[in-house]
Structures are given as C-alpha cells and as structure tokens.
Amino acid sequence: MGEHTATGRPPRGGLAAADRRQALTAMLAAEPHRLRRRSISLGVRPDDADDAAQIAAMRAWRSIDALDATDPGTMCSWLDVIARRTAIDLHRRTPPTDGEVECERLRAAQDVERAVETQARLAAALRSIRALAPELREPLLMSAVDGLSATEIGDRLGISAAAARQRVSRARKALARHPAGARAGSPPSRPVD
C-alpha cells in the first residue's frame, strides 16, 4: 500500500513526502539566502529578514504536503506565497508606531535645523548687543532683560527717565539698522552718541 498523509489521503501529485522534503532541502541549500532576500523585497526590515526567512522555511517544511510538484517553477511560486504570507504576518505584528517613529525622526531633524537657525540668530543678536556702546547697551538690557521701567533705569544710572527712554530707543534703532551684518556674522558698527 502507498504512503498516505495525516488526513488518510494519498500524497498530492503522487509524490512521496520524502521526495518533496528532499527537493525543498536541495533548493534552500542551493540558494541559502533566497528567503531572506525575498523577505526584504517584500518590505521586511533587514534586521528582521533572517527571522522571516527561518519562519518561512519552517512553514514550508510543515506544509510540504501541499506541494503538488517539485519542479523549480512550482516550488519557487509555492515558496514565494509562503514568504509573502510570512512578511504580511510579521508586518501585522509590528507595532503601528513605526510610522510614528519615522515621523518623529523627520520632525527631530527639522527641530535640529530650527534649533540651529535659532541659535545662529541668537548669536547674531548677542554680537549686535555686545557691539553697542555701553551707555546704550546697559539701559537696553535693563529694559529688555530685567524689565525695569524708564524711571528705574534712570535711578540706577543716575539719569532722567526721559534720557533712559531715549537711550533704550537709540539702542533698538541701532540694532534694527544692522540685521544683515548680524546675520552675516560681522558685528554692527557702534552707534555714535
């Protein structure tokens, strides 16, 4: 009596399971990276491709009874279906955060560019402020950084509130006149009192 499968039916295509397994083993031995390459081509990350290839090989080995013929074309198509299903299953198991992680990477790159641009602007502004004459720089910093009123600035510097307002205004105008020089990296010329 001939060989029968676990279901009690004779093997498909009249091939013995041993012949099908031998053909599968020979094909995988002849091209050991076939399933890995196919997994990558189906979108599996290269880091996961070896696992995908092993899973596909195990599935092929377990479902060898479904193979109708052992000619190379039939076997390649059959292995391709198994590799495709394995890739789909792995993709379904991958958390949906991959897209979010990629978006986060892109956003982080943009944030770095923005941070560099902001830092360059800040450095240019600081160069421009440092280039101001001390009698303009001090009242400007007291106003902008310390938040002091013209009266408070005048009291600290021993000048009138009107003179403090005038110096802060002159400092701001001097900074506004030199934005191109500040961006290019050269300090603006000192304003004349």
Write the layout of secondary structure elements.
Layout: H1 17-30, H2 34-41, H3 46-62, H4 72-93, H5 97-131, H6 134-144, H7 150-157, H8 161-177, H9 179-184
Helix pairs in contact: 2-3, 3-4, 6-8, 7-8
Q: Judging from the principal axes of the Cα atoms, what is the shape? A: rod-shaped
The structure class reads mainly alpha
Order of helices and strands: HHHHHHHHH
Describe the sheet with the most strands.
none
Unreliable spans are: 1-12, 180-193
What percentage of amino acids are in beta strands?
under 5%
Number of helices: 9
What's the β-strand tally?
A: 0
- Whole-number mean pLDDT: 79
In percent, how helical is the residue content?
Answer: over 70%
Radius of gyration: 38 Å
Q: How far apart are the first and last residues' alpha carbons, in Å? A: 114 Å
Explain what the structure shows:
Helix content is 72%, strand content 0%. With 193 residues, the protein is an all-alpha fold. Helix 6 packs across helix 8 (161-177). Mean pLDDT is 79; it is low at 1-12 and 180-193.
Main attributes of the structure:
193 residues, mainly alpha, disordered N terminus
